[in-house]
Amino acid sequence: MITDQDSRIPVTIYLKPSTVEQLKQISHYLAVREQQEVPLERIIRAAIADYIDMMAPLSDTDTTALKSLLFEPNNEKPYAIKNRFKEIMKQKGIKAVQIHRDTGISESNLSQLLNNKNLNMTLDSFLRIWLALDCPPIADCLYRENL
Protein backbone atom coordinates (compact mmCIF):
# COMPACT_ATOMS: atom_id res chain seq x y z
CA MET A 1 0.00 0.00 0.00
CA ILE A 2 1.41 3.39 -1.02
CA THR A 3 0.84 6.15 1.50
CA ASP A 4 0.98 9.88 0.92
CA GLN A 5 4.34 9.88 2.72
CA ASP A 6 5.74 7.31 0.25
CA SER A 7 4.71 9.35 -2.79
CA ARG A 8 6.45 12.56 -1.71
CA ILE A 9 9.30 13.89 -3.81
CA PRO A 10 12.12 15.65 -1.97
CA VAL A 11 12.80 19.20 -3.18
CA THR A 12 15.73 21.39 -2.19
CA ILE A 13 15.02 25.12 -1.91
CA TYR A 14 17.22 28.07 -1.04
CA LEU A 15 15.70 30.80 1.11
CA LYS A 16 16.92 34.19 2.26
CA PRO A 17 17.89 34.33 5.94
CA SER A 18 15.07 36.84 6.51
CA THR A 19 12.55 34.36 5.08
CA VAL A 20 13.85 31.60 7.34
CA GLU A 21 13.56 33.97 10.30
CA GLN A 22 9.93 34.74 9.39
CA LEU A 23 9.21 31.01 9.12
CA LYS A 24 10.76 30.47 12.56
CA GLN A 25 8.58 33.23 14.00
CA ILE A 26 5.49 31.60 12.50
CA SER A 27 6.61 28.23 13.85
CA HIS A 28 7.07 29.70 17.32
CA TYR A 29 3.67 31.43 17.17
CA LEU A 30 1.92 28.22 16.08
CA ALA A 31 3.77 26.20 18.73
CA VAL A 32 2.46 28.55 21.43
CA ARG A 33 -1.04 28.63 19.96
CA GLU A 34 -1.34 24.88 19.37
CA GLN A 35 0.79 23.95 22.40
CA GLN A 36 2.95 21.62 20.34
CA GLU A 37 6.01 21.96 18.14
CA VAL A 38 5.30 22.84 14.50
CA PRO A 39 8.20 21.93 12.17
CA LEU A 40 9.32 24.45 9.54
CA GLU A 41 8.75 21.83 6.83
CA ARG A 42 5.05 21.67 7.74
CA ILE A 43 4.74 25.46 7.58
CA ILE A 44 6.47 25.58 4.20
CA ARG A 45 4.26 22.78 2.81
CA ALA A 46 1.13 24.55 4.10
CA ALA A 47 2.24 27.87 2.59
CA ILE A 48 2.90 26.23 -0.78
CA ALA A 49 -0.48 24.45 -0.68
CA ASP A 50 -2.27 27.73 0.19
CA TYR A 51 -0.47 29.55 -2.61
CA ILE A 52 -1.35 26.84 -5.13
CA ASP A 53 -5.00 26.94 -4.02
CA MET A 54 -5.05 30.72 -4.35
CA MET A 55 -3.44 30.68 -7.80
CA ALA A 56 -5.47 27.77 -9.18
CA PRO A 57 -7.98 28.75 -11.87
CA LEU A 58 -11.60 29.17 -10.91
CA SER A 59 -13.61 25.99 -10.63
CA ASP A 60 -16.29 25.23 -13.21
CA THR A 61 -18.92 26.08 -10.60
CA ASP A 62 -17.39 29.51 -9.95
CA THR A 63 -17.01 30.19 -13.69
CA THR A 64 -20.66 29.27 -14.32
CA ALA A 65 -21.79 31.43 -11.40
CA LEU A 66 -19.84 34.43 -12.71
CA LYS A 67 -21.17 33.98 -16.24
CA SER A 68 -24.75 33.76 -14.97
CA LEU A 69 -24.21 36.98 -13.01
CA LEU A 70 -22.67 38.94 -15.87
CA PHE A 71 -24.36 37.84 -19.08
CA GLU A 72 -28.04 38.62 -19.21
CA PRO A 73 -30.58 37.81 -21.90
CA ASN A 74 -31.64 40.89 -23.89
CA ASN A 75 -35.18 40.87 -22.48
CA GLU A 76 -34.08 40.93 -18.84
CA LYS A 77 -34.44 43.98 -16.59
CA PRO A 78 -31.39 46.01 -15.57
CA TYR A 79 -29.60 44.68 -12.50
CA ALA A 80 -26.81 45.36 -10.05
CA ILE A 81 -24.22 42.88 -8.86
CA LYS A 82 -24.04 42.97 -5.07
CA ASN A 83 -21.90 41.20 -2.52
CA ARG A 84 -22.62 38.95 0.45
CA PHE A 85 -19.42 39.76 2.30
CA LYS A 86 -21.31 40.96 5.38
CA GLU A 87 -23.15 37.62 5.67
CA ILE A 88 -19.91 35.68 5.16
CA MET A 89 -18.25 37.76 7.87
CA LYS A 90 -21.13 37.01 10.23
CA GLN A 91 -20.85 33.25 9.53
CA LYS A 92 -17.10 33.33 10.15
CA GLY A 93 -17.34 35.59 13.20
CA ILE A 94 -15.18 38.28 11.59
CA LYS A 95 -15.73 41.94 12.50
CA ALA A 96 -15.50 44.82 10.03
CA VAL A 97 -12.63 46.33 12.03
CA GLN A 98 -10.58 43.18 11.38
CA ILE A 99 -11.28 43.41 7.63
CA HIS A 100 -10.30 47.10 7.80
CA ARG A 101 -6.98 46.17 9.46
CA ASP A 102 -6.29 43.30 7.05
CA THR A 103 -7.16 45.19 3.87
CA GLY A 104 -6.24 48.80 4.55
CA ILE A 105 -9.64 49.90 3.20
CA SER A 106 -10.91 52.89 5.19
CA GLU A 107 -13.71 52.13 7.65
CA SER A 108 -16.19 54.42 5.87
CA ASN A 109 -15.48 52.92 2.42
CA LEU A 110 -15.57 49.41 3.85
CA SER A 111 -18.95 50.10 5.47
CA GLN A 112 -20.35 51.30 2.14
CA LEU A 113 -18.99 48.24 0.33
CA LEU A 114 -20.26 45.75 2.93
CA ASN A 115 -23.71 47.36 2.92
CA ASN A 116 -23.84 47.48 -0.90
CA LYS A 117 -24.22 51.27 -0.82
CA ASN A 118 -21.38 51.66 -3.32
CA LEU A 119 -22.21 49.53 -6.36
CA ASN A 120 -18.90 50.37 -8.07
CA MET A 121 -16.55 48.20 -6.02
CA THR A 122 -13.10 48.08 -7.57
CA LEU A 123 -11.45 44.76 -8.32
CA ASP A 124 -8.72 45.75 -5.86
CA SER A 125 -11.23 46.22 -3.02
CA PHE A 126 -13.07 43.02 -3.91
CA LEU A 127 -9.85 40.98 -3.90
CA ARG A 128 -8.63 42.51 -0.63
CA ILE A 129 -11.89 41.66 1.15
CA TRP A 130 -12.12 38.24 -0.52
CA LEU A 131 -8.58 37.35 0.57
CA ALA A 132 -9.21 38.66 4.11
CA LEU A 133 -12.19 36.26 4.25
CA ASP A 134 -9.96 33.32 3.22
CA CYS A 135 -11.19 33.19 -0.39
CA PRO A 136 -14.76 31.89 -0.04
CA PRO A 137 -16.34 30.54 -3.26
CA ILE A 138 -17.08 33.39 -5.66
CA ALA A 139 -20.64 32.14 -6.10
CA ASP A 140 -21.19 32.67 -2.36
CA CYS A 141 -19.84 36.22 -2.53
CA LEU A 142 -21.91 37.76 -5.33
CA TYR A 143 -25.53 37.93 -6.39
CA ARG A 144 -27.70 39.83 -8.87
CA GLU A 145 -30.47 42.17 -7.85
CA ASN A 146 -32.90 43.64 -10.36
CA LEU A 147 -33.10 47.43 -10.36
List the helices and strands and how they pair.
Elements: H1 17-34, H2 40-55, H3 60-70, E1 79-83, H4 85-92, H5 96-103, H6 107-114, H7 123-132, H8 138-141, E2 142-146
Written account of the structure:
This protein is mainly alpha-helical. The protein has two domains: 56 residues; 87 residues, 434 Repressor (Amino-terminal Domain) (Orthogonal Bundle). It has a two-stranded antiparallel sheet with strand order 1-2. The longest helix has 18 residues. The chain is globular. The termini are far apart.
SS strand fraction: 5-15%
- Helical coverage, percent range: 55-70%
The CATH architecture of the largest domain:
Orthogonal Bundle
How many domain regions? 2
The CATH topology of the largest domain: 434 Repressor (Amino-terminal Domain)
Summed up, the helix count is 8
Shape: globular
Q: Segments where pLDDT lies below 50 for 5+ residues?
A: none
What is the chain-wise order of helices and strands?
Answer: HHHEHHHHHE
Strand tally: 2
Q: Rg to the nearest angstrom?
A: 20 Å
Query: Main sheet: which strands, in order across?
Result: 1-2
CATH hierarchy, class of the largest domain = Mainly Alpha
Distance between the termini: 59 Å
Q: Which class do the helix and strand fractions yield?
A: mainly alpha
How many strands, which pairing sense, and closed or not: the largest β-sheet?
A: 2 strands, antiparallel
Mean pLDDT: 85
CATH superfamily heading of the largest domain = lambda repressor-like DNA-binding domains
